[in-house]
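Researcher: Please translate sequence to structure tokens.
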Amino acid sequence: MSRADWIAVDWGTTRLRAWAMDADGSVRDEASSGDGMGGLSRAGFEPALLRLIEPWLSGGTVPVLACGMVGSRQGWHEVPYVSIPAKPAELRPVPVPGTDRRIALAIIPGLSQAEPADVMRGEETQIAGFLSEAPDFDGVLCLPGTHTKWARISAGEVVGFMTAMTGEIYRLISDHSVIRHCLAGDGIADPAAFTDAVSDTLSRPEGLAQRLFAIRAETVLRDLGPGTARERLSGLLIGAELAAARGYWLGQDVAIAGAPGLAAAYGAALEAQGLAPRVLDADPLTRKGLAAAYLSMGQTAS
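Model: Translation complete:
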């Protein structure tokens, strides 16, 4: 059992992650649960957090610094977005009310873009974590996930970004469409099918809907294997995303930070277009961004 000097929290739509932290930003312990924002009422947030972090609480009041959907309209407390251009490292956490005196919660605000309209919550903290290790980065950071973000970064500022629902679309198709039958079973991975599909929709994104159904047709007529079907589905969707994001990655210094398998897929897709992106594991970035924000709060207070 570890006591925490402070607690870092990443609260997304489907998952809640927390770290018991030392004052210097190092990790003592970590925990997670399935109590994401999407499954909680407003009254359920504080109890869900306490269930997870109670072993780390002491007799006094422990600061808790959170990011993500916990600050959304459907979250614990709505925290207004900060308009870009903005420096993620300089976002000021907003104290929010609670009933348990053992914790003092503050939430890092997300970022918004007026034209074209876009928002992010949680990714701004990942970007801050990335910039804490690459402060001179000038280029585009891709954060693949359920809702992939492409962020233009210059002089430590996010100056523009776009969101693609590629991950959510993949899951919807995999779980609820006629194509789900084509993906059943293990199958053998087929990297060539992935890169071919990326190039196909990148060059002709208007044909995406037809090419998606072709996965079904080839399964019926040509015994297309589930491994190849999955690679093709992923490649078609990522290729369409790359077509939409061409202005973000073409001719740019690109870094990709995500879950290792997904980040590697985006890396392979861009490498097939002649780029040499840096591919990073995003898992530590949110925690590093939260730690940087907490340490900055201490400096501001002093």
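Researcher: Any highlights?
Model: The first strand starts at residue 6 and ends at 11.
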